[in-house]
Write a structure and sequence with these properties.
This protein is of the alpha+beta class and 338 residues long. The protein is built from nine helices and 19 strands. The radius of gyration is 23 Å and the shape is globular. The mean pLDDT is 94. Bound molecules: FE2/S2 (inorganic) cluster and fe (ii) ion (FE2).
């Protein structure tokens, strides 16, 4: 960056936006599997619109656009799960989880299009780690990667059911940028120093190794991050799955897991302390977790597309370039702002 024209900087500041980002593409957490029983349906706000979340009698999960392709009734107000379908309250047309119209109770001949394609927009769904996931792509393309195996969430021998949810007034890209903003760990969180870190970007995956293995994290697209914290050879894992609610509102969600150590053991004590540290709840800790401090910044900041960085900053620009791949339907004008 050359000389800074202060007048220009002032003009730019006035045009800054808080969240100039589209909703990114990827797998995103919808809700916990055990909160949705067979035959249940409810309305959820996600990806900057409303959706109807439902579970069929057979156990399949669906997430559909709320408005019936017939005459526009809201499927989540008076609609019902009937067998494997979601039934509209208005004229009882029925749709399966893939959005195909399976039944019109009073039609002698089904409209031919219903045989050929889905007529209701539904999202590809998955259930993994006890969580319901939806693949969101504004262009309605099929998933381009699978959710990974997470031993701490899926295999026997792990414990801890702690989990938390935190609403934030910012976009998911801004939250995740924290992961490569190593300088703020010292100044905002009060860490003893700026940790040395190695970051690697590969397709939809980002790998971060901080403080020589103290924190090893891997992100899978914008909606899933797994961080292992290790101390004295004992690891605890934070699984983070943030949701884009609207363009300016997100919900952070996290599960915390560690090995199923014996009650009263030193290992269990360290594991619990590591989790406390992640949340910022540990007593006598020098450094604060994200909850108490990051929110003050996130909830009030604006996004600078052309920041002035120094040599001590983390790979902020590389991270932003990597994140851009998830704005699959964004036009050039929008991309220029992010
Ligand atoms: S509006 Fe849904 S069935 Fe008519
Ligand atoms: Fe932070």
């Amino acid at each position: 960056m050359g000389a800074i024209n202060l007048q220009q900087l002032l003009a730019e500041t006035k045009t800054l936006e808080r969240c100039p980002f589209p909703i990114p593409t990827g797998w995103f957490f919808v809700d916990y599997s055990d909160t949705l029983k067979a035959g249940e349906l409810r309305n959820v706000q996600l990806f900057d619109q409303e959706w109807v979340l439902f579970r069929t009698e057979g156990g399949q999960v669906g997430l559909s656009d709320p408005y019936c392709p017939h005459l526009g009734a809201h499927l989540g107000h008076g609609g019902k799960v009937v067998g494997e379908n979601l039934r509209c309250p208005f004229h009882h047309w029925e749709y399966d989880t893939a959005g195909f119209c399976k039944k019109i109770p009073y039609a002698k001949v089904m409209p031919p299009v219903t045989k050929k394609q889905a007529i209701l927009r539904t999202l590809p769904m998955a259930e993994k780690y006890g969580l319901i996931w939806a693949w969101f792509d504004p262009k309605c393309e099929a998933p381009t990667w699978e959710l990974p195996h997470i031993p701490e969430m899926e295999d026997a021998g792990y414990a801890c059911t702690r989990r938390g949810t935190w609403p934030v007034n910012t976009a998911i890209q801004e939250i995740a940028e924290n992961g490569v903003d190593f300088a703020h760990l010292k100044f905002l969180h009060g860490a003893p120093g700026i940790p040395p870190a190695v970051v690697n970007f590969e397709k939809h995956i980002i790998d971060i190794n901080m403080a020589n293995g103290y924190i090893v994290g891997r992100g899978y697209g914008p909606g899933l991050n797994v961080f292992q914290f290790t101390q004295e050879g004992i690891s605890a894992t934070m699984i983070s799955y943030t949701q884009p609610i609207t363009a300016e509102r997100s919900q952070m969600n996290m599960s915390f897991r560690y090995k199923d150590y014996a009650e009263g053991s030193k290992e269990l004590h360290i594991s619990k302390k590591l989790v406390d540290h992640m949340i910022g709840a540990a007593e006598g800790e020098e450094s604060a977790g994200f909850e108490s401090v990051d929110f003050i910044v996130w909830n009030n900041k604006k996004y600078r597309p052309n920041p002035l960085l120094c040599d001590g900053d983390g790979p902020i620009l590389q991270y932003r370039k990597w994140f851009k791949q998830f704005y699959t339907a964004a036009d050039e004008g929008t991309l220029a702002k992010v």
